[in-house]
Amino acid sequence: MFRRLFLLASLCLALSGCTNMKPEQFANEKPALALEEYFQGQTRAYGIVEDRFGNVRRTFTVDIKGDWDGKVLTLVEDFVWNDGELEQRIWRLTRDGPQNWIGTTADAIGPAKGRVSGNAFNMVYDFNLKMDGSRTKVRFDDWMFLMPDGVLLNRATMSKFGIHLATVTIAFRKDLPERAAVRAAE
């Protein structure tokens, strides 16, 4: 009996995808990430969604319009999914101390809590995810890392009841003015 319980507990831990990473581990990493500066203006990102077995299930691009008013960073995200679905999400991030942020969006359940340190940002939140025509509550553990040349890498794990469901990987790049002008003319 004890052996079965031990095996079950071990399996649950293995499936949960727990991480011990903390933003403070990246305090001295450069370049330093300032969300309100990075996301001001236009940003474009490219992403994939992988299931728990590593199979790519969806891909997307997202154009982000960021506006920092000195108190709130508003991110208007326009997604184009590889199956043709269009989706818009609007995040509002409010600074809650020198390194902490509180985020809200329509499908988040309660506030998202984030912390920036060095080149890293971590935000954890519950989300009403569209799945198979309905919505289900999932937990996101979202990590962003600013790299040289303005590239921002994002890896978010999605779980339910502590069980890893999917990983979302996104690469952000700042939109160059000439590229934005070409897209506006299209």
Automatic annotation (TrEMBL):
Keywords: Signal. Residues 1-21 form the signal peptide. The keyword Signal applies. It comes from the Bacteria. InterPro entries: DUF3833. This is DUF3833 domain-containing protein. It comes from Niveispirillum lacus. The lineage of its organism: Bacteria, Pseudomonadati, Pseudomonadota, Alphaproteobacteria, Rhodospirillales.
